[in-house]
Amino acid sequence: MAAPTKLTAEEVQRALAAMPGWTLHDDKLFREYTFPDFVHAFGFMATAALRIEVLNHHPEWCNVYHKVKVHLTTHDAGGISAKDVELAKVLDEVAARLQ
User: Which domains does the chain have, with CATH numbers?
Assistant: First the structure.
């Protein structure tokens, strides 16, 4: 399988325009999700983990109480790739069901 390729700055900006809530932070896609409580935040991470494993593309994320911060980049590509955009959309779908 070919290694993923890094998106151009223009491609990243187009992707961000179609993904409300996501921003560019330290050359990574970034989003902070807020849930009603810790159980919902942890449930988001556990539910998303099943979908993430199928994609075989893992986020940099952390949870503090009711917040989950997510940073997406593709190390093999040296930056943001289409895999990050795809994962961002998956995370948004999962979060929408739990928020």
Answer: 9-98 (3.30.1360.20)
